[in-house]
Specification:
The structure holds two protein chains of two kinds. The longest helix of chain A has 28 residues. By secondary structure, chain A is an alpha+beta fold. Chain B is mainly beta. Chain B has one helix and 28 strands. Classes of the chains: A alpha+beta, B mainly beta. At the A-B interface, helix 5, helix 7, helix 8 and helix 16 of A face strand 7 of B.
Chain lengths: 614, 335
Amino acid sequence: MGALGALRTSNVIRFSLCALVLTCVSARSLPAQGESSPAAQFEKRRQRLLDVVSQERDRGFFTVTSKFITGRDTEWAMAMLDSLTTDEGIGGMFYSYTAIGTYLRLKDQLPDSIKRKIRQAYRTRTMYRGDTENHWVMYYTGIYLAAQTWPNEDRSQWFNGKSSTENFKEAEQWLNRWMNITSTIGQGEFDSPTYFIVFMTPVLTLYEFAKDPAMKRKAQMTADLLFADFAVDHLGGNYCGGHSRDYPDDIANPLSAPAALWAWLYFGEPKTELWGETRYHPRHRGGWETASGATSSYRLPEIIYRIATDRSRPYIHTETKRVRNIIRFGPEKNPPAYKYMYMTRSYALGSLQGGILQPIQQHTWDVTYISEKPNNTIFTLHPFYSGKELAMFFPEEQKFLSDEVNRYHLVYTNPNKWNSSSPYEQTFQHKDAIIVLYNIDKEARQSHIDGFFPKTLDERIEHNSGWIFCRAGSVYVAFFPLKPYEWIEEKVNWRWRSSVAKNGVVTEVGSSDEDGSFEEFQHRIVKSKPAFNNFDKTFTVHYKTRRGDEMKFTFGGERTLNGKKVDFRTYKFFNGPFIQSERGSGIVKMTYENRVRELDFNKVIIKEWQQSKQ
Amino acid sequence: MKSIFSLLFAGLLIVVVPAELFSQVSTVYASVLSTKLFVVGAANPETGLYYQRSSEDTVWHHMGAKNIREFGVAVHTPSRGQLICLASGNGVHMTTDGGSTWRITTGWQITEVLAVTIDDANPNFMLCGTPYGVFRTLDRGTTWVECNNGIAQKFTSSVIIDHSNSSILYCSTEDGVYRSQNRGDTWKRTGLNVGGVRVVVQSPKDPDVLIAGTDDDGIYVTRNGGRYWEKSEAGLDHLTFFTITFDPVNPKILYAGGYMTGVYKSIDGGVSWTRKNVGLSNLNLHSIAVDPTNSNRVFAGTQWGGVFRSDDGGDTWRNAGLSGSQVWQITVQPF
């Protein structure tokens, strides 16, 4: 039997018992199913997506799989699969999990010749593991499932010279480690509207095909966790607030991000079918990774669906994540990243604390609102770049790194880019108000800050009080620049630019729900004005919000709210009305009305219960 | 009649030309990290380990796995290249049969390996440097153990096993050059107290002579095993050095290169330097190697410019292929 088999046997016994108990609990707590139930609506969208993808002719495993499942265009799909398994140029982590996932999904329909080619790929093809968290999740998911599928084979049968047993053990160890870290101190590539798909897809693949009940359940729990993490920041298909990594087009047009299609499938929002919406220029066409959700037997727990879609009451939600591995120039390998989210039914204001939490693609804060129009977001940033920033996270020479990264992420050194971390940016948010300060070093290559203001705003008014007021439907934004600025007209937006090194902005967001008319909102806002000296001696801003809360923020110093110091170190792993978790505990509790779902990653158990109404 | 003359001429050659010259072939190994077209996970142009079997060979042959983000290569000279290790993103790859079969010897714990070295006398003992510190194996890669006791900043870009005493090791890190006297059980920082040491190399003759290149602080030389280091400045107009190499026959001769430097040559053991860039169209260097069978033959690996070669000790250079490649390391072997 070998180590592989022995390991599985003990787990099978242990976890089949757990599964039995939990299934009973789950069945009792589920509400009645009907045509309009979330589950029934999901089934419709799932079928619809498969129908759409199966009509596409993109070169990829997900398109192929959709065609086989729907029985459409299978001759073409077979030829494409043959091409994908023949082309030696393709390899690496993306191939690692999609090839085996397709094999396992379709093995009863595939001819032996194709099956042999897929097997051969794991003998001869280089599977580069990559250098990011998502790369490793994809790589090891693929290795785990391939070694599980072809057990007891010796070293000569694998591209990396390791036996089936060695490959399985290595992949199993790393996947367990990743899921433990993700459920205790968070992802390094957290809350990414783009990279969400390359975590979700391998995790669902692992859930679908892992034979070890422990691994299968852990994958299910991790899928729950990733969806819940998205759900609390979700508004109408938009992945709101601060992100570790995102692409400029998706930051400026949130519903063009790949995560939006997952929101459509699992949360039923937005209502529109994004792939046909040219206004969003959807980047998720082509890969169709979301089809892996449509083919999976994983079902989103209804509680997460409710968390994602119930915006009947505003809420504050905070989180702690981690910075990806800092390999040099930093005292700590994975310092914490702190997130704050204020969510309403029409807008969300969310932020990270600022600083370098991720290289290249960080998105520190934004207000994102519900709108029928694209580019439904406002934010500012300092377009920072440096070889040293990159060298903190990548092992290549820092003198070469900026040029190298520019080749992948075409805008890294561009002064007009819309994604960036910056050591010279810090935030302080309280509910629907945020102060963002910039202290740009003289040596920084780019010394200006930019703000994104979409042309799709219904109104943009420069008030003589110094406030800039914006309206998008029933959402109102008040924006106070602390230093002189200019406007630059661009294709889809107005670029607000200020070139003063010691700088900052104050923003408040409201809506007709709580502020009445736009004029009433403005009237409430102009009663207060940020107080600050010229930043010559102290770099401090005082601001009293329209709600009457006193915020005081010193760059590099204290944040105080109504005279009380705000200490990020008190932030929990998750803390809000819907999700609660102590950092490091491995236990994540989701709550919606009287329903509770608890993920216990230590015991690999899911518990569900109903608590008595208060 | 003609055949008699031919025979006589051949005999004359045999008499006047030393026999060993006929066997002085060499093999150049080039470790290609990337190309300009590389995109993670995509269908990429081939990268990895390349070699030229003969010094006159103009074609580069690929060996081993492709597209593994290969940083470094260590060739075991006594086995004539039967044992080769590659430092790569996936870990340490190893062949024991001259490249016919390969195996990744490391697990998930070791990644983005920047340098690897093999003890020539005892090839079971190997060392690798990574962003997470130094790891060693005493059983030819069956098990690798982290050995960073005493190293403050773990990011390690080069490692050395002392050729005269394999208990003594050196490594270059983000906070200086470290030395171990017990095969890596413990380390102590040498007298070089500068940050960002990119490379440290040891004289092939005198083990106490080492030279270090840094990110922003030029070149340093020690002649007492690291106790004291002197900054080498004469003739140097640059501060960033990624590669330094000794002429294996005459260690008074050195070559150095780095960011925008082109090639610097020293003929006095690193006391003074002269730029040697005629024909070198890419001045960003990451590797230089001297052919041990012919000291005039020098190879330089560039950033995105492939390999350049000199046949006159660096006086003139010409492109030698792998154009567009990022050549992280080159080694030339006497077989």
